[in-house]
Design a protein that fits this description.
- This protein is of the alpha+beta class.
- It has 3 domains: 269 residues, Spore Coat Polysaccharide Biosynthesis Protein SpsA, Chain A, CATH 3.90.550; 67 residues, no CATH class; 105 residues, Jelly Rolls (Sandwich), CATH 2.60.120.10.
- Helices cover 24% and strands 33% of the residues.
- The protein contains 11 helices and 29 strands.
- The protein has a 6-stranded antiparallel beta sheet.
- Helix 3 packs across helix 7, helix 6 packs across helix 7 and helix 7 packs antiparallel against helix 8.
- It is globular.
Length: 475
């Protein structure tokens, strides 16, 4: 069995903590691991890491690769979608890759941002699911509801299958219900939460995509012909954007006659919105969840997330407050699902509040945007010990660097030299350059950019420790 982790989502309902280029799967929402690190650790108990594929998009690939390299020294496989085309395309593309490698493979598909309390039960269910998948079924894991949840989809289990304990044919997919229906579903032992965790043979899912989504199937076949060849990247760029954007649930599973569900009691939660924290993080005696520098007087049943600056709350009830360096969210818990609508409004405005944080984490360290205006941008860079940025060049801007702490090793053109604290240097436009921290301490410097275009995509790489050579990506 192979593992496929879908990690291309933007996590808009967790704004402002989650952004398009730093979504919730990259966050430590509970525990000491990020959600995607926990997902990899969980599935690695069953599947060797060299048989696990992570599907994501270019803006997230670098950070995901960096985070998961901290979890394992084994070789993971990464599949980069040129753009998001929903889960049917992502799963189909991964299946095409696996089919080339192992035509008889089965695959487990799971999201990168779920919480599972009982991991042994989860792994046991996957083993049962694999046996059923070998009989030609598309298998989904269902979770026994523990509350009348209106934010989840449901599955109605039908007649039991004789192949394994707890498995049934699927009778019906149920959309997110209203409160009254959710209460009724809670009392029906045959109605389960749809976890979006699937197991099937690669051949089976590709046959079903061909049957129900022929346009998608044709595009995937065109891409499949070039997998592993020099033409793959070019065909992927031209063909992938034309693939239909549809979920695997709507496009295939709700139409297939070969669908089975396993009822599990694994303590599953989709960490989809701020409300989900109530189910995975212990609350205080007043029903609050409070993180960071919070001062509270008399608030109840609320979620308050703060960073370094003080967030004071008085007499709140059933409220979410999430504060970051550049944005603050305040909403009623009942409206937490609508944060996604707020992000859509932000996208229509000029600005990056929906896309990136002021502080952007990179494999080599981080940068924070301090100030920007027409023709200039000021950043604070922190370079980790024994780390370096890529050897790069900008076509539209020059840069001044002022070292405020540590010692920088600078490459500028053909020159290589060191700059101690309280010293500066200038990098002209169009000149190859690099910053390196060769010491065991952190390096901090201020970067002042000047030029006609200051976007993060104005960068050409020539050498890089993180696999980004000769690509136009962010620093």
């Amino acid at each position: 069995m192979y593992g496929v982790i879908l990690a291309g989502g933007s996590g808009t309902r967790f704004w402002p903590l989650s952004r398009e280029e730093y979504p919730k799967q990259l966050l430590k929402i509970f525990g000491n691991r990020t959600l995607i690190q926990a997902t990899l650790s969980r599935i690695s108990e069953l599947i060797p890491t060299e048989k696990i594929y992570v599907v994501t998009t270019p803006p997230q690939l670098e950070q995901i690769r960096f985070q998961l390299s901290l979890e394992t020294h084994s070789k993971l496989n990464y599949i980069s979608e040129p753009e998001r085309r929903d889960t049917a395309a992502a799963i189909g593309f991964a299946a095409m890759k696996l089919q080339k490698q192992d035509p008889e493979a089965s695959m487990v598909v799971l999201s990168s941002d779920h919480f599972i309390k009982d991991e042994p039960e989860f792994l046991k269910s996957l083993c049962i699911a694999e046996k059923i998948a070998q009989e030609g079924y598309l298998v989904t894991l269902g979770a026994k509801p523990i509350r009348p949840e209106t934010a989840y989809g449901y599955i109605k289990a039908g007649p039991s299958l004789p192949l394994a304990h707890g498995a049934s044919k699927v009778e019906q997919f149920i959309e997110k219900p209203d409160r009254a229906k959710a209460v009724r579903y809670l009392e029906d032992e045959n109605t389960l939460w749809n976890t979006g965790i699937f197991v099937w043979k690669v051949r089976t899912i590709l046959d079903e995509i061909d049957r129900f989504l022929p346009e998608l199937s044709e595009g995937l076949k065109e891409i499949g012909k070039t997998i592993g060849t020099e033409k793959e990247e070019k065909i992927l760029q031209t063909t992938y954007a034309q693939l239909p954007s549809i979920s695997i649930d709507y496009g295939v599973l709700e139409k297939s006659e070969h669908l089975a569900v396993i009822s599990t009691d694994m303590g599953w939660e989709d960490v989809g919105s701020w409300n989900a924290l109530d189910e995975v993080i212990p609350r205080d005696n007043s029903g609050n969840i409070m993180t960071g520098n919070v001062v509270n007087v008399g608030s109840t049943d609320s979620i308050i997330y703060a960073g370094k600056r003080v967030v004071g709350v008085v007499g709140l009830e059933n409220i979410v407050v999430a504060d970051t360096d550049d944005a603050t969210l305040v909403c009623n818990k009942e409206s937490a699902q609508d944060v996604k609508k707020l992000v859509e409004v932000l996208k229509k405005h000029n600005g990056d509040a929906h896309r990136i944080h002021r502080t952007v984490i990179r494999a080599w360290g981080s940068y924070t945007i301090l100030e920007e205006g027409t023709g200039y941008k000021v950043k604070k860079l922190v370079v980790n010990p024994k780390s370096k940025l890529s050897l790069q060049m900008h076509e539209n801007r020059s840069e001044h660097w002022v070292v405020v702490e540590g010692i920088a090793t600078v490459t500028c053109g053909t020159s290589v030299y060191t700059i101690p604290a309280n010293q500066s240097t200038f990098v002209p436009m169009g000149v190859k350059h690099r910053i390196e921290n060769a010491t065991n301490d952190f390096l901090r410097l201020i970067e002042v950019q000047s030029g006609s275009y200051l976007g993060e995509d104005d960068i050409t790489r020539f050498e890089d420790d993180y696999g980004r050579v000769l690509s136009k990506k962010t620093e």
